[in-house]
Task: structure prediction
Amino acid sequence: MAASSTRQKLLSLIDDIEIVSKELFEALSTPKTQLRPDGADSVMLMELLVEKDQELKATIKTAEEQAEIQSVMDNLKIEVEKRDQEIKVLQKNLKDSETILSTAVYQAKQKLESIAQANNKRTSSEDLIKFAHRISASNAVAAPVTWAPGDPRRPYPTDLDMRQGFLGQGTYTDVSAVTRSNSQISNSKYRSS
Result:
């Protein structure tokens, strides 16, 4: 049989004390002429009442201890819920950090690949200077005369244009010849004017 709870013990003891008290009062209130043949009833009832009172006090003390334990448990449950919320926030932050880090690692790998590719296909600074001079000599740094704001054409070379040019094709030997011819055209323009 399952052990009874502290509450049930208290209620049972209170009922027992009530019954014993009633019997004791009845025994004490009856006139002495009508006393029962065994006069030890009132003494036994008093001893039983004292015994039940001691049991009640012990059970009340147990109930107080259990109430304190329950209070500690309730406080611990509240603390656990707080920690659970903090853990959930930390998990979310870690997941966000993981996403950011994986994106950063992916981008870093792409940049390293680009750097390795650039190192494999090096272009000398002289060729870059020659190409820049060619662009500036041919007035390619300015928008075409027919271009106006809102025009869908770009007023500068696109990536595709740059790849199809001298640097993109890897033919740098002709750059100096084109630059010279552009310089001659420019010089002839200045002479004629």
Notes: Residues 6-117 form one domain. Confidence is low (pLDDT under 50) at residues 189-193. The two ends are 120 Å apart (CA to CA).
